[in-house]
Amino acid sequence: MNAVFRCDLGGSGEDFRHFWEHTIGSGHATLALRADWQAQMRRAHDELGFRHVRFHGLLDDDMGTLIDQDDQPLYSFFNADQILDFLLSIGMRPFVELSFMPTMLSSSNQIIFRYRANVSAPRDHGQWSALITRLVGHWVDRYGVEEVREWFFEVWNEPNLQAFGSGRQEDYFKLYASTAKAIKSIDIRLKVGGPATAANAWIPDFIAFCTGNALAVDFISTHHYPTDAFGKPGDDTETQLAESRRSVLRDEARIARGQAGNRPLYYTEWSTSSNPRDPMHDEPYAAAFIVKTVMEARGLVDGYSYWTFSDIFEENYFPSLPFHGGFGLMNLHGIAKPAYRAFQMLHGLGHEILPVEGNHPTLDSWCVRDGNSLTVLISNFALPRHPIGTETVHVELHDAMKPAMATVRRIDAETANAKALWETMGRPDYLSPAMVARLHEASAMPEQQLPVTWRDRTLAFDVILPPLGVAAIKMEFASLA
Questions:
Q1: I need a labelling partner for 338 at 20 to 30 A (CA). Which of 122, 262, 299, 472 fits?
Q2: Which residues in the chain land under pLDDT 70?
């Protein structure tokens, strides 16, 4: 089935903020001390526009933030400062996840991940508050209160899951209360929020608790993945989300937007799936999913932090296989995956989005203007085991001037897909420098000329999109008026 999409360039558009660039995820705080992590982070900032980064474990024992020495607390913020100094030096800021529990303050030996993060509640909330006050106060002294006011302080990670604690609201609410009070005691304009839950959980209850106890909530944060089991059989949430599983994250974000009210809403984790070894993370499927998901989240969220920017990641173990289905936009060698190129396409969009007419079971199109340039973005996406095929897309742009140039960039099985070349190499466990160079070349997203027709102020062109393909068609005009 072919598709036709139409856009009137003479009409007015809407503001299109690059909300997905607000924050990007990483794995574990100590990784940010590695040179290769820092090189990839710098590249993600420079090429994709990410402005904040969020990671687990800033308070873990391996960071040395607080340890027990002869039954006395020993504070050391040097490693944390090294990370923050680097981020600020490249124009980024932290989205601070306050986790996990230093062993000295822990109420049990409940641990998670290969790096043995303690996820128990503090045995003494006064001591926890003292840690938060001392740490955040140190950063205000070091970086200045005006700078730290630009940061975000998120309390814990997925407290509704027993993997990250008791899973009980009352335990998390108590932790949030002591943390928020400690942060606000330093400066009332520092931003603190939560509940940092998995799958949209607890948002109304969290807001009600904070309102009832006069606690500050500067933003709402939560997580979602398309592999989450949203709702229970027969409940209203399941009914709403089941209407369009192809757009399940959009539908869930709509629910969270309503629950958050007028507070900023940040999804501090989302991805193609929650499986840390999912082959789709490395394949064109992820690019098509990312483009559709981001474009559908417009107007619903204030920040949308993809999990994660790099395969330099160690929750279960530190892998060496070049393409192992890791969460990252880049693999261990810094080779861009199709997902990376998707964010590069999105970063290149302008800031005015125009209405587009047309519909199709697997194709979606958007039209974004930036001064005298215009980008038509098209994706061909379907969920696994759902029908999808190669499609010819016809685009008509009405009330258009003749373009000085029209080009197309693509992501699909044949283009910007380094994993496909690695498979033809025999899927080697380790790469030589020559192999890395070849894979970098295969990951590229070249720009090609696109033939167009222009008649009676109507600009038209055709694009063929294979399954799970994405195309960005950019036109430069002498003037769009």
A1: 299
A2: 1, 229-244, 479-481
DSSP of 356-381: -B---SSEEEEEEEETTEEEEEEEE-
247 and 391 assigned to the same domain:
no
Evaluate if pTM is beyond 0.85: yes
List residues with catalytic annotation: 158, 269
pLDDT, position 371: 87
Residue 111, C-beta contacts closer than 8 angstroms, at least 6 positions apart: 117, 118, 119
The reply to whether 289 and 231 lie within a common domain is yes
Do residues 57 and 122 both lie within one domain? yes
pLDDT at 224: 96
Task: Report the candidate in 214, 188, 298, 289 with the shortest Cα–Cα distance to residue 248.
Answer: 289
Residue 481 lies in a domain: no
Tokens representing residue 265 in the block: 């809403």
Domain boundary among 309, 326, 347: 347
pLDDT given for residue 250 in this prediction: 94
Q: Where is the domain boundary, 332, 347, 362?
A: 347
What one-character-per-residue DSSP string does 3-25 give? EEEEEETTS--EE---GGGSEEE
The pLDDT of residue 403 is 87
What is the distance between the alpha carbons of residues 61 and 314, in angstroms, rounded to a whole number? Answer: 16
Which of 32, 12, 26 shows the shortest CA–CA distance to 85? Answer: 32
Could you tell me if residue 365 is inside a domain?
yes
- Condensed to tens digits (0 to 9), the pLDDT of residues 169-224 reads 999 999 999 999 999 999 999 999 999 999 999 999 999 999 999 999 999 999 99
Token pair in block for residue 432: 């030589």
Name residue 320's amino acid: S
**CATH number, domain with residue 245:** 3.20.20.80
What does 56-82 look like in DSSP terms, one character per residue? E-TTSGGGTSEEEETTEEEE--HHHHH
331 and 367 together in one domain: no
pLDDT at 401: 87
Shared domain for 224 and 355, answered yes or no, is no
pLDDT at 70: 82
Give the domain extent around 420. 3-13+351-476
